[in-house]
Specification:
456 residues, alpha/beta, TIM Barrel, Jelly Rolls, 2 domains, eight-stranded parallel beta barrel, six-stranded antiparallel sheet, 16 strands, 25% strand, globular, binds beta-L-fucopyranose
C-alpha cells in the first residue's frame, strides 16, 4: 500500500516535471526553425507563375468548363521566363500546376482534363517538367502549387473520393520532378470542404521531406510558412517567426504573395496599365523582405507562352536596382573598433557576432575615419536557435552632446530588418540591443545611403 502511494507520488512528480519542461519549451524564444526553414528563409525572394487555360480566356478564376483545346501557346519558352526571373534576383519558382479550374499542366494519370487533351505539342507536352528543368538550369529552386479547390473534377463533391484523387495528383508531382522547395496549399474556395490534410502532408513528406508547406494560419499543424493575410505585398511590423494558435506555438515565417500586375495573377490582353512600377516593387521589397518575410512575386506568361517584354524589362530593372543598392554597404568600410564586431560588418551572412554568454543586451559599434551619411540600415539575426532580439535601437554618436542618439528603433529583427530614416551623418554608429531573451546573434549590420526611393 505504502509502495503504491510512493509510486503514485513519483508519477505525479514526473508529470509535474513534464508540464514544466513542456511549458518552458512553449516560450516563443525557445521554438527553433527546422533546418529546411532556415535554408528557405535565406532565399528571401521567389516568384509564383500562373499560366493555364485562363491565360487564353481572359479570366482569373476558371469555373472548370474551359475546353482543353484553349490551351495552345505557340512560343512556349520557360527559359525566357527563367532568364528574366534570375535577373530579378529571385531565388525560387513556384509553378501553379493546377489552379481552381482543375486543368492540370502535366500529363497526369488521374484525369484527362490536362495538357494531354490540348493541341499543344500534340498532347505530348509537360509544362511542369519543362518549367522545372528550365528553373534548375538557371540556378532557381522549384516548387508547385496544387489547388485543393477543384471546380472541374466530379469527385470534388465526395470528400473521401477527392482526397484519394488529390493525393494521387500530389504523389505524381512529388515523385516526377525532383526536389520541391515549396508546396503551396491555397485556401481559396475551400471553405466548407473537408480535406484529409494529415494524409496529404504524409504523402508530400514521404517524397519531399524538405519542402516548405505554405498554408494559411488555419492549417496550423502542417504549415511551415504562413500566408500574410493580404495580396498587397505588405507585412505588418512587428513580424515574429513564432505564431501562437490556441496556446500552441510553431515556427512559421511569413510569405507575402503579390502579383507584378496589379491584382492580376493571370495574363490579360490590353493590360499594360496594371504593370507595377520600379518604385512600387522596391517599396514592396522593403515591406516584405525588409520586415523579415519572404516576397513571392506573381508572374504571368502571356498567350504566346512568353513573359511580356514589359514584364521582362521591369524584372531586369528590379534586379539591377536591388544589386545596386546592395553594393553600397558602408559597413564594409568601417575602419576600427573591436575585431569581434567584424563578423556582423563583413557583408557575409554566413558569419555572425554573438553577444556575451548569458547576456540579454549588447551592442555592435561601427566606426569610420570620416563622417558617413546614411538613411537605411539592414540588420539580420541568426535564427537557427530561435528569434531572440525583442527590442533594439539604431544610434549615432552626437559629438556636440557627447552622447548616443537613437535614429530608429523596433522590436523584432528576425531574418532581416530594414530601417529607414532621414539622412544622418556620423563617425560612430551602433546597433543597440536593448533586450533579448538569449544572447543576441547578429549576422549583418549594414549601413546604406539609398535616398528617398523607398518611401515608407
Ligand atoms: C489565391 C488564388 O485564388 C488566386 O487566383 C491566386 O492563385 C493566388 C496566388 O492565390 O488564393
Amino acid at each position: 500500500m505504502k509502495q503504491a502511494r510512493m509510486t503514485r507520488f513519483l508519477l505525479l512528480l514526473i508529470a509535474i516535471a513534464g508540464c514544466i519542461s513542456a511549458g518552458a519549451q512553449d516560450a516563443a524564444g525557445d521554438i527553433r526553425p527546422a533546418p529546411y526553414q532556415v535554408a528557405w528563409q535565406d532565399l528571401e525572394f521567389g516568384v509564383i507563375i500562373h499560366f493555364s487555360t485562363n491565360t487564353f480566356l481572359n479570366q482569373e478564376w476558371g469555373d472548370g468548363t474551359a475546353n482543353p483545346s484553349a490551351f495552345n501557346p505557340t512560343q512556349f519558352d520557360p527559359e525566357q521566363w527563367m532568364k528574366a526571373i534570375q535577373g530579378s534576383g529571385a531565388k525560387y519558382v513556384v509553378l501553379v500546376a493546377k489552379h481552381h479550374d482543375g486543368f492540370c499542366l502535366w500529363p497526369t494519370e488521374q484525369t484527362s482534363y490536362s495538357v494531354k487533351s490540348s493541341p499543344w505539342k500534340g498532347g505530348k507536352g509537360d509544362v511542369v517538367g519543362e518549367v522545372a528543368r528550365a528553373a534548375r538550369k538557371y540556378g532557381l529552386k522549384f516548387g508547385v502549387y496544387l489547388s485543393p479547390w477543384d471546380r472541374h473534377e466530379p469527385k470534388y463533391k465526395d470528400s473521401a473520393e477527392y482526397d484519394k484523387y488529390y493525393n494521387a495528383e500530389l504523389e505524381e508531382l512529388a515523385t516526377r520532378y525532383g526536389d520541391l522547395v515549396e508546396f503551396w496549399l491555397d485556401g481559396a474556395g475551400s471553405a466548407g470542404h473537408i480535406y484529409n490534410f494529415p494524409k496529404i502532408i504524409e504523402t508530400l513528406r514521404t517524397y519531399q521531406p524538405n519542402a516548405i508547406v505554405f498554408a494559411d494560419t488555419g492549417l496550423f499543424e502542417y504549415g511551415d510558412a504562413r500566408w500574410v493575410g493580404n495580396e498587397a505585398g505588405i507585412v505588418d511590423y512587428e513580424n515574429w517567426n513564432v505564431i501562437d494558435r490556441h496556446g500552441y506555438r510553431r515556427w512559421r515565417p511569413v510569405e507575402a504573395d503579390t502579383p507584378l500586375r496589379d491584382k492580376h495573377w493571370f495574363w490579360h490582353p490590353n493590360d499594360e496599365a496594371s504593370l507595377k512600377g520600379l518604385d512600387t516593387l522596391l517599396d514592396t521589397y522593403d515591406k516584405t523582405v525588409g520586415r523579415g518575410a519572404q516576397l513571392m512575386l506573381g508572374l504571368a506568361p502571356d498567350n504566346r507562352g512568353l513573359l511580356p517584354d514589359s514584364d521582362v524589362k521591369r524584372l531586369e530593372e528590379f534586379g539591377a536596382a536591388l544589386k545596386n543598392r546592395a553594393k553600397g554597404n558602408l559597413s564594409l568600410h568601417h575602419f576600427a573598433g573591436p575585431a569581434e564586431f567584424n563578423d556582423a560588418l563583413d557583408g557575409d551572412s554566413d558569419t555572425f557576432w554573438s553577444a556575451p554568454a548569458d547576456s540579454h543586451h549588447g551592442e555592435i559599434e561601427v566606426q569610420f575615419d570620416h563622417p558617413v551619411t546614411f538613411d537605411h540600415t539592414v540588420t539580420m539575426e541568426w535564427l537557427n536557435e530561435g528569434q531572440h532580439v525583442q527590442k533594439y535601437a539604431i544610434e549615432i554618436w552626437s559629438e556636440p552632446d557627447q552622447k548616443w542618439k537613437a535614429i530608429a528603433d523596433g522590436q523584432a529583427i528576425g531574418h532581416k530588418k530594414t530601417d529607414t530614416f532621414p539622412p544622418v551623418t556620423a563617425k560612430r554608429v551602433r546597433l543597440h540591443i536593448l533586450s533579448s531573451t538569449e544572447p543576441a546573434r547578429i549576422r549583418e549590420f549594414q549601413l546604406y545611403s539609398w535616398g528617398a526611393v523607398t518611401s515608407h
